[in-house]
Specification:
- There is one protein chain.
- This protein is α+β, with helices and mostly antiparallel strands.
- The chain folds into three domains: 81 residues, 3-Layer(aba) Sandwich (Rossmann fold), CATH 3.40.50.20; 152 residues, D-amino Acid Aminotransferase, Chain A, domain 1 (2-Layer Sandwich), CATH 3.30.470; 62 residues, Dna Ligase, domain 1, CATH 3.30.1490.
- Helices cover 29% and strands 22% of the residues.
- It contains nine helices and twelve strands.
- Strand 11 and strand 12 form a beta hairpin.
- Helix 1 packs across helix 9.
Length: 312
Amino acid sequence: MNVVVLMGGWSAERAVSLTSGAGIAAACRRLGHAVTEIDMDRDVAAQLTAAAPDVVFNALHGSPGEDGTVQGLLDLLGLRYTHSGVAASAIAIDKVLTKALLTPLGIRMPAGKVIASADLPAGDPLPRPYVLKPVNEGSSVGVAIVTDGSNYGNPIAAHAEGPWRDFDELLAEPFVAGRELTVAVLDGPGATNGPSGPWALAVTELRPVKGFYDYDAKYTDGLTVHVCPADLPAEVEASALDMAVRAHVALGCRGTSRADFRWDDARGEAGLYLLEVNTQPGMTPLSLVPEQARYRGIDYDALVARLLASAA
């Protein structure tokens, strides 16, 4: 096939997207495909039209590649592409919309509320400890954990460094103590519920060497230990796998997704909370979907082939 690998762009996750895209392009060539690599800019529609691909491998992370915008463009151009479509992408990247869709289905998520960043110096929106994060970003971009001992001030000082400096609105959530878990979901053969999927690959525990699992910990070698499969009670593992698949289905995800969790191990299964669903998981050497796929006997090239086959 003639494959375009669409990567880069201008989001906060540009560098990760370029790394993902380079790996995907190399895999596509090993699979025998003709490959055009496009670092997305404002002229992307013309570049895609000129390339005339059989399929676009969407290797973008963050907006506008993960929020439904690029998906809508590709639909208008009549191009097949990997990963989720417009609706799933737009809902999943918005943490408030994701809660509104998933919590009525019995998928446990932390309660939260959207607050204006300008209001933070007037007082805490929730009892400490709590988490502040952008409503529409991934990869833990702009996440702050506000504790009694944090150096943000009490209340948060207007001059303190944090996501309130970069985003007009933030989502405030109670901090869930415990352990960081993630589950990759993949469509296609091997699914327990049919030949087309989806199926949950494994649960990985993420143990940052210091601090929490932020952007640097995710993408800097040596800063996080991955335990795959995680050492968990059977009921917690089963619940994480089930919630990840149900979220994938409810959101209408396609190809693959990754569900991120916090587990308060002092509370058993009741302490497991879904934080978010990523519709464009990373494909870098440190990324979790390729790692869990390897655990299931699917190497990187085979994973890329499966995602190409899932394009629509």
